[in-house]
Amino acid sequence: xxxxxxxxxxxxxxxxxxxxxxxxxxxxxxxxxxxxxxxxxxxxxxxxxxxxxxxxxxxxxxxxxxxxxxxxxxxxxxxxxxxxxxxxxxxxxxxxxxxxxxxxxxxxxxxxxxxxxxxxxxxxxxxxxxxxxxxxxxxxxxxxxxxxxxxxxxxxxxxxxxxxxxxxxxxxxxxxxxxxxxxxxxxxxxxxxxxxxxxxxxxxxxxxxxxxxxxxxxxxxxxxxxxxxxxxxxxxxxxxxxxxxxxxxxxxxxxxxxxxxxxxxxxxxxxxxxxxxxxxxxxx
Length: 284
What we know:
- With 284 residues, the protein is of the alpha+beta class.
- Helix content is 29%, strand content 23%.
- The protein has helices at 18-28, 42-65, 72-85, 153-172, 179-192; strands at residues 89-90, 103-106, 109-111, 126-135, 138-147, 196-197, 203-205, 212-216, 233-236, 239-241, 247-249, 257-259, 265-267, 270-275, 278-281.
- The relative contact order is 0.17.
């Protein structure tokens, strides 16, 4: 689908740059282009990168400490304590009423699981821990999957294929390609392995705000969606289900997203900046 808006606008009296001319050539053909305010300056990218260092440290700590018998609330405390000790803020805490410092999504929970004292991790569980860090006003967002002890071959494959989907999506994202290229590649790999891609949630722009343009769908068609221009910062975060792609939101807490058939789901996520040569990872 092509865009109808002229998003890339040159202020009156400002000289056109080579980048302007290239983006405008796509816009003239009807493609959806970003607005110029989505292109981050080198200083902004460095700020997001520094936030990413803290975010990576948080997930490294979780990787060291997570174990069977641990509650998801204990994970949340680790995330909060580490983040504030490094001069940063957990972005999820209080965001639109979300009560905790990270999301912990176990087995059939796709995302937005709320840490609590009653949820105890057990041998064989697969767990996504999703953290977003704000440091000096800059946001970095990433999640990892953790396997508690030994799990089933089916769950292990799901975790591994989901990580491959993230890596394949990263490779598909090229300067002056399209968001749809990412989704097409991810969906193709998931289907090839007998899994499905969640369609109700997506990656997103990030950096100066928690959620910005573009929406990064994890399924789609090539040469559709927004043009990918150097300087854009966004997440890719495929959510891959063992069964149906359909999900529902828990009516009790209004946050927890669960697979419709209650079969397991997995997710991996990084924050990236598009460069002249492809994506650079800002979180690990």
